Amino acid sequence: MEKTPTNVPENVIDCPAADAGEQPVIQIENLCTQFGDVVVHENVNLTINQGEIVSLVGGSGSGKTVLLRQMLGLTHPASGTVRIFGEDINQISQQELQKLRNRWGMLFQHGALFSSLTVFDNVAQPMRELRVLPKELIREAALLKLHMAGIGPEHALKMPSDLSGGMIKRVALARALALEPELLFLDEPTAGLDPNASESFVDLIRTLRDEMRLTVVMVTHDLDTLFALSSRVAVLADKHIIAYCEPAHVVEFKHPFIETFFRGERGLRAIEAMPDAQDSESESKEEKRPEIQPQHRQDNAP
Ligand SMILES: Nc1ncnc2c1ncn2[C@@H]1O[C@H](COP(=O)(O)OP(=O)(O)OP(=O)(O)O)[C@@H](O)[C@H]1O
């Protein structure tokens, strides 16, 4: 028997987007999720606007992965709506859903590359599946996406097993960008990376957001990444979004999860390292960022 959802707690904080004039890309309304007797989400509401980078955080089992899967149309909520680009993804046909899927990219936690395909083929495959692009264009576009993700053509014929963890993430990102998405989902994008690789991945995501006007939704436990990138942070706890604000405001909210997650030693260190405090330092990192050149062409490639 389904439990009747209770109302959202009154003491939530919900701040408007910094640029509230932007179009909403994701609109989740009154979403409820239940598995058997276990209620995971009760009346969850979340709007993500174009160009935002929103981090979804919450304790283990709070329902982050399920919510992400619901945004991807892989899992259906018990009730409520999930609109992506204005379409209710639980009401449209599989064909329409597939068209929408071509407008977003997903980076899975473990890269999710095909181990039997080369780096190049991993990135080219989503384009080949469209069955409309000529071979030469696919070749150029795949190499461009690899270049954007900081992977040179000398790696194109390598197998995933020959790559470092950081390179696998970059190739997976190139693959997620293959169809020029407007929206990017990232599941623990920096998990397993060393601090340098994480930092350069963060720079890359920021650059892509700025250059491609991407909207980004990420699930992360990495506070450095969260503070460096997020325009807003959505905190899932007690079956609700209890806070949805800029990182600096979310940390002020009194809730046991927030206090444990953000105000521990690591959290305080990450707050101190937030971009505002580091503007001059981040400029000195400029040369580390891969340049994005839309017409770039590699002649030595496969
Ligand atoms: N297919 C399923 N069938 C039954 N229960 C499920 C299913 N998928 C998820 N759950 C339950 O839903 C709850 C939320 O799971 P979810 O994986 O979204 O948590 P999470 O916040 O991503 O946790 P973590 O940070 O540990 O990955 C958990 O109690 C989980 O056991």
Automatic annotation (TrEMBL):
For molecular function, the Gene Ontology terms on record are: ATP binding
**Ranges where the record places region Disordered:** 272-302
Q: Pfam family example for this protein?
A: ABC_tran
Keyword tags: ATP-binding, Cell membrane, Membrane, Nucleotide-binding, Transport
List where this protein forms a coiled coil: none
Query: Which InterPro entries would you find in this protein's record?
Result: AAA+_ATPase, ABC_transporter-like_ATP-bd, ABC_transporter-like_CS, P-loop_NTPase
Which part of the chain is the ABC transporter domain?
A: 26-263
Composition bias (Basic and acidic residues) maps to 282-302
Instruction: Provide the protein name.
Output: ABC transporter ATP-binding protein
Q: Which organism is it from?
A: Herminiimonas aquatilis
